[in-house]
Amino acid sequence: MRLPAATGSGATSTGSGATPAERAVVSATTTGMVTCDTPFKGKTVTKETYRGLELSIASSDAAGASNGQVACVIDGRQALIGDPASVRAALDAKAGGSGMDKSADYGKARAALQGDQLATIFVNGKAYGSFLSGTLATTPAMADLGALLGSVPDWAITGIRAEDDAVVLDSLAAPASITSPAGTAGPSLLPLPPAHASVIAPLAPADTILYAEAQGAGVALQNLFARFRTIPELATTFQMLDGMGGAGQLVGWVEDAGILVVKGQQAPSGGLALVTADDATAADRVRTLTGLLALMGFGNNSVQTRESTIAGVTVTTITLSNLASLVPPGQLPPGLDVPADAKVEFSIAAKGRVILLGSGEDFMTAVLGVQPGAGLADQAGYKQATSRALANSRGSVYVGFHDIVGLAERFLPADQKAQWEANLKPYVAPFQALSITSTEDASGAHQRLTISVSQP
């Protein structure tokens, strides 16, 4: 059964009185033995003949249903169910040869996916953009949303397939148009730097359970600020930001950013890695931050700093104790208090052009002690998870499911371990790791999610 070429939120009404958001139709292949009687059991049903087929229409209690009605039709082994206007439109599309499979955009989208798919999801970007533009234009409270959303690609498609020891999900989109859903050109944005070999990945220890990296993070943040700047209500905030040097001064020195969580021997630890232009910039930013923290602690025992050397790198550890004394009166909501004995400890260091900000010296020891050939990238589980990763990825995420499960088992209460081992672990154990990579260029955007398993 062919759905209308304009299938999506932007499909137009055909006299039913339904708004575009209320239009929907579901198409399903059946055994050939079903009828429309089952979904309409207990309801008053009217029948009509449309395109030579019997169309059943009944009242519906579903929210958003067109005029409170839902229609069903069986065409051979194909069943259609939805609001009456959409079901008729689907039958018209089949009869007229104007179905979604005839859409040039759908053809491009489907051709972009590799091979057979277990499931696909297609979004008609042109129809969705038209619908969104109309919504933004008629809803003043959402008028500023258009600038934040950016432009809408002509199409987007997601496919799921199974490959030996992995499930692979590919999401692709056409190049975005130059206008936003609000119909404007939008703010001027900085070009993202080209993708490159990771500077952060070599610092990830072998027992890293979560690794995420965003190349060009500083530029992306500046572009986000540029979008927010178009909102009139934020004008005062941006005047204050401009007085401090603007977004460029705040985040412009960041090239790439990464997050690392390490399993550790006793407990997990985590931190942030920021890539700067060169070694001197990294060292200068660390000196500035530690100097500010030292100034905060002048004459105040609640802020203490100490230095240590780990793998030849100077590490500054800051301990903030008695946090309640650092919060000015009246700054917290009524009824919310900071415990007097609460404290936070974190460490900061510069290794080459990378600034590391971690949860403590355990994190620094793990990261700074990584030896060539013995890091995360050298582990079999990581290699399996990333074997299908996109080349020249600008964004990367790795999650070690297997290691996370092992870590969680350490803290599982004794009275729950038997139930876990018998009822849950057999279903979780085969999952090894998750990998997400993404690219974007003149041909469009591509994101790939891979879940690797131990037992294909």
Structural key phrases:
456 residues, alpha+beta, 12 helices, 18 strands, globular
Overview of the molecule:
With 456 residues, the chain is of the alpha+beta class. Among the domains are: 20-101, no CATH class; 106-173, no CATH class. Helices cover 28% and strands 29% of the residues. Strand 12 (303-310) and strand 13 form a beta hairpin. The protein is globular, with a radius of gyration of 28 Å. The two termini are 33 Å apart.
- Helical fraction equals 25-40%
Strand order of the largest sheet: 6-7-8-18-17-16-9-10-11-15-14-13-12
Strand content: 25-35%
Uncertain runs: 7-19
| SSE string, helices as H and strands as E | EEEEEHHEHHEEEHHHEEHEEEEHHEHHEE
Q: Which term fits the overall shape?
A: globular
Number of DSSP strand runs: 18
Number of helices: 12
Short description:
With 456 residues, the chain is an alpha+beta fold.
Secondary structure layout plus pairing:
Layout: E1 25-29, E2 45-50, E3 53-59, E4 69-75, E5 78-82, H1 84-96, H2 104-112, E6 119-124, H3 125-138, H4 145-149, E7 155-163, E8 166-173, E9 208-215, H5 217-228, H6 235-243, H7 246-251, E10 256-262, E11 269-275, H8 279-296, E12 303-310, E13 313-320, E14 344-351, E15 354-358, H9 361-368, H10 380-386, E16 395-399, H11 401-410, H12 414-428, E17 431-441, E18 444-453
Antiparallel strand pairs: 1-5, 2-3, 3-4, 4-5, 6-7, 7-8, 8-18, 9-10, 9-16, 10-11, 11-15, 12-13, 13-14, 14-15, 16-17, 17-18
